[in-house]
Amino acid sequence: MKKTARAHTNIALVKYWGKKDKELIIPMNSSLSLTLDHFYTDTSVEFKEELTADNFSLNGVSKDAQQITNFLNLVRKLAGITTYAQVDSTNHVPTKAGLASSASAYAALALAASSAAGLTLSKKDLSRLARRGSGSACRSIYGGFVEWKMGTGDLDSYAVPFQEEVDWDIRMLAIVLNDAEKKISSRRGMQTVVATSPYYPAWVKTCHQDIGELKEAIEAKDFERLGTIAEENAMKMHALNLSASPHFNYFQPETLVAMQLVEELRAAGIPCYYTLDAGPNVKVLCLEKDVAQIKAKLAEAFNQEQLLLAAPGPGAHLLA
Ligand code: DP6
């Protein structure tokens, strides 16, 4: 049976940055994200008796399937099957947008592969499964604001929806700065930080506080508080990278230009806040009513084609 699933990317407002268990992908702290509408991955999976290995194509191009095979082995074990699969993925995450496509990729694969194998997993178990592919993927099972509860191990580390229907006009404007390959993967970056940053214990402690306050801000629809918490949490994450040994960072000169423009907008009374992940692109959190003014200001340094707008999006679902 061939099954096709769609999953959207998410942007973390309180970030996941460190693992307690590398094999099972258990994080050091809980995280909270917003699933985005415009950026998603469609994946179809079909287990076929005649195949002698898993086949994987991305955007129509055949790719090495080792990571997919590792993930499908989890699904085969759950379903009690041994057949190989044909996996075809299309990324609708604009290339170079710096929006983690591993989140939408593994959330879509978890849903398509488990369904094609004849399993009907609960959302909790789907989230646990997606987590094994890439930590941030466990949050893309749900739409809107989503919390990944760190838990203590495989059974209790999964995402739960915090506010699935977002009935306010929060937006995320991604500023696409650079198409260079990521120098240091999230996986390696967070591992270095956990092992060497003297500030790591403070990060874990303050993330716990940040999640509590962020939830209050979301419930109160207090955008300025939400933005402040998200921006400060992102800067704390990047401070870990600067304090690691060897130290590293994801900033490009234009990253700092974008951050400064956002600060100038804020000084001029427009509420907008930045967040950054494991790459140079800056993502601006804002309200729909301010998008035009923010774009006009960013035009001082960037082309309109570099600006990609997203709104809250839905959770992973089957298309066919
Ligand atoms: C900075 O989920 O890509 O985007 O679990 O090793 O695959 P792995 O890492 P990944 O890391 C995402 C890190 C982040 C913050 C976040 O999304 O919470």
Automatic annotation (TrEMBL):
GO BP terms, alphabetized: isopentenyl diphosphate biosynthetic process, mevalonate pathway
Under InterPro entries, the record lists: GHMP_kinase_C_sf, Mev_decarb, Mev_diP_decarb, MVD-like_N, Mvd1_C, Ribosomal_Su5_D2-typ_SF, Ribsml_uS5_D2-typ_fold_subgr
What sequence ranges are listed for the domain Diphosphomevalonate decarboxylase-like N-terminal?
7-159
Keywords of this entry: ATP-binding, Lipid biosynthesis, Lipid metabolism, Lyase, Nucleotide-binding
GO terms for CC?
Answer: cytosol
| MF term (GO), any | diphosphomevalonate decarboxylase activity
EC number(s) on file:
4.1.1.33
- Reply yes or no: does the keyword Nucleotide-binding apply: yes
Q: Which residues form the Mvd1 C-terminal domain?
A: 173-305
Similarity-based family: Belongs to the diphosphomevalonate decarboxylase family.
Question: Any idea what this protein is called?
Answer: diphosphomevalonate decarboxylase
